[in-house]
Design brief:
By secondary structure, the protein is mostly helical. The chain contains 20 helices and no strands. It is globular and about 55 Å long. Its cofactor is a divalent metal cation.
Length: 456
């Protein structure tokens, strides 16, 4: 069984919409659309809107969300015996929570938002700031009839899936990392983990999204390096913002001082290995064993290049004006936050929310960076794959257009998944399970035929 999953290849085949296609594929594959009588067009609109609200960042983008979604799928559901422990409502919650877990991420962490008195930190009282914002943003998207994926659910189901989704998204807050690990270890050591009971299944779902969120070292070496360099790029840009605004530069975010291999080794030893070890004691599948093997191999790689600076790409800082613009305009706001920000502007409340530093972001658009990407270029041998592109709008050779949040041409039909027989090689990449195992045919993802315009 081949578990290798190339989210960037999926992005190419889906015209830069890996999250949308993968989400629809999995909901169809597990029979969730039919079981819950979900309106297919509403589901499509919901996932398009979610993907559009991921920003053009080097790491926390819709490709990362698709990768987390697929990894949760493999961790929990790639083994049919394990999959049968979970209800369809729990599987649906896991899929949607994974898809939205970083929606509208601004590219800085909770500590930055708190230290800079960001309006989001004020709104959420410094508690799991980003995580509550991601969950809130997802349910904000659902407020419209055309994107309310739970519109036909009974109220008790709505409450249950909402609770599970919020819990899963909040579980990705690293400040509670070891709390979750210790909960699972205590259950395992006492032989008290019983997947027949809902609270224990909820804990496993929380741990699954945590493993998926930190799964970069559990990938093949090339994928591990690619994602590691992407997250370091975001780290360094946060360090630039911290220095610009007179804040202490966070550990591992100073581009002048950080040793990337040493940083990755610490990440693996302190956070990733304990997490996956506890998971492997609970869920001993082929995929879990592969993850543990890759973690050991990737750690050895980083150790082998500790003193080889030529093995690390060069990271260039973005223009200073981009950092200044993003100081308080980093996060799109739900309706409640907008009201508080307007009030703060009038009363001179905490945080610099003057018109010059805070601007409401238009729906689906990133910051106005005058045609320049907020992500700085990387040189040497590392080439970042492009993010979202549109088949009807070729990207200029000078790369001046921000394509991630470009609005589609209204005259073009939206790209939608084809729900037919399993013919695409990408489908095998997404679900390395025999169709007979679950008794369903897989939806067909688009082929890489360049002559196709992506229309349904």
């Amino acid at each position: 069984m081949d578990f290798e999953f190339d989210v960037f290849r999926l992005g190419e085949l889906t015209h830069g919409q890996p999250l949308y296609y993968l989400s629809m594929h999995l909901l169809q594959y597990y029979g969730l659309i039919e079981h819950f009588n979900i309106d297919v067009d509403v589901a499509k609109a919901f996932f398009r809107e979610v993907e559009a609200n991921y920003r053009n960042l080097s790491y926390h983008n819709s490709y990362h969300a698709a990768d987390v979604l697929q990894t949760v799928n493999l961790l929990l559901l790639s083994d049919p015996q394990m999959a049968q422990n979970f209800t369809k409502l729990e599987i649906l919650a896991a899929c949607i929570a994974s898809a939205v877990h970083d929606v509208d991420h601004p590219g800085v962490n909770n500590n930055y938002l708190i230290q800079s008195s960001h309006p989001l930190a004020i709104l959420y009282n410094d508690l799991s700031v980003l995580e509550y914002h991601h969950a809130s943003k997802a349910f904000e998207i659902m407020q419209k009839p055309g994107t309310n994926i739970f519109a036909k659910f009974p109220n008790d189901q709505k409450r249950e899936i909402r609770k599970q989704m919020i819990n899963m998204v909040v579980a990705t807050d690293m400040s509670q990392h070891f709390t979750y690990i210790n909960k699972l270890k205590s259950k395992i050591s006492a032989a008290a983990l019983k997947l027949q009971e809902a609270p224990d299944r909820a804990l496993v779902l929380d741990m699954a999204i945590k493993c998926a969120d930190l799964n970069n070292p559990a990938k093949s070496l090339e994928a591990c390096k690619l994602w590691a360099f992407r997250i370091m790029e975001e780290f360094f840009q946060q360090g630039d913002r911290e220095r610009l605004n007179g804040l202490n530069v966070s550990m591992f975010m100073d581009r002048k001082e950080t040793n990337i291999p040493k940083c990755q080794i610490g990440f693996i030893d302190i956070l990733v290995t304990p997490l996956f070890e506890s998971w492997s004691q609970c869920i001993a599948t082929d995929f879990t064993r592969l993850c543990m093997k890759n973690i050991a191999l990737n750690r050895s790689h980083w150790e082998s290049i500790l003193d080889k600076p030529d093995a690390i790409p060069t990271f260039h800082p973005p223009d200073a004006h981009i950092l200044e613009q993003e100081l308080f305009a980093t996060t799109g706001s739900p309706a409640t936050l907008k009201k508080k920000l307007i009030s703060m502007q009038k009363t001179g409340g905490s945080g610099d929310t003057s018109p010059d530093t805070f601007r409401q972001r238009g729906k689906g658009n990133s910051l106005n960076t005058k045609g320049k990407s907020p992500v700085g270029p990387i040189s040497k041998n590392f080439q970042k794959p492009s993010l979202r592109s549109e088949p009807s709008r070729p990207i200029p050779e000078d790369g001046s257009r921000n394509t991630l949040f470009a609005k589609p041409d209204n005259k073009q039909s939206a790209v939608t998944p084809r729900m037919g027989r399993r013919t695409s090689g990408v489908v095998e990449m997404i679900n390395p399970i025999k169709a007979s195992a679950l008794g369903r045919n897989l939806p067909e993802l688009p082929k890489s035929d360049s002559s196709s315009d992506g229309a349904p």
